[in-house]
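Lecture 7, part B: from sequences to assemblies.

Below are the input chains for today's worked example.
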Amino acid sequence: MMESVPLTWEEVARVYGRKIYNFAYRLTGNPDDAADLVQEVLLRVRRGLASYQPGSFEGWLWRITRNAFLDDVRKRNRRPVAPIPDEIDRWELASTPGSDVEYLRISLGDDIQKALLELPVEFREAVVLCDVIGLSYEEIAVAVSVPIGTVRSRIHRGRKILKELLT
Amino acid sequence: MTHPTEMISAYLDGELTRAEVSQLLAHMDSCGKCVADMEGLQKVRTSVRSLPLIELPPGLLGDAEPVVVPLRRNRGFWVGAAAAGVAVVIAVATVLTPQPTQLSVNDLNSRFGARVSLDPAFGPAKVVVPDVRELTE
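Predicted structure of the full complex, as structure tokens:
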């Protein structure tokens, strides 16, 4: 997919920052890790834009994002990513206006988020790229560097595991 | 029986070729297990897609204020649903197409009348059907 390329990393941050954060949040289940990942991705985008060759910009961006995530996982010596806490610290949340609404919004998806974190990383990233970010199988194949058939298999197997975990 | 299970998720995402859709639907006509699998996978897919959007922590992007864009592009199931809808419309149109049999004027009028009444489902195209009674007089 040919796209116009944002001129600066600030543009990338403005347009894709929220998407990258949600991708990172759903992969890590942790707001701090997600924030760190966003900053790492934007750093890599900043460095990479100078040599970027026009093509599939989103494919390139998501490739950088998932590589940053995998590097982080490796850096943690293959420890499983931290699960989200059972109970968000309501005292901390209570100090910010509108926090009850935000707590409710996040907790509504708790079971699904926990189940996502149970998935093997390659299934999790495929499901999140498809169902949270909305990429096509072809775009996911570019981002993850696997054939489309593998993307199809990973998404299906990921959803099957989620089905077992959620019933 | 071999179940084309991996096709089910791809079908829900609108990622199957027309031939694969036919193959899957033909299989599901006689396989309750795959029908049940599809229902379960559809629920999972909907659940993940309904996860709430997490807003960016304030200040994370520095001076770059985020642009509010839809998190997820509209695609997937509705692409498949639209394709299925088109298939249904084509099937209905095929059934309603007059066959070369001897019909009375009243039969013709009622048949064409029925097609005209279905036209809104086919979109804005105008279909002018002459009154068969006038043509035969």
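Note for the exam: Residues 53 and 70 of chain B are 10 Å apart (CA to CA). Keep this in mind when comparing with the next example.
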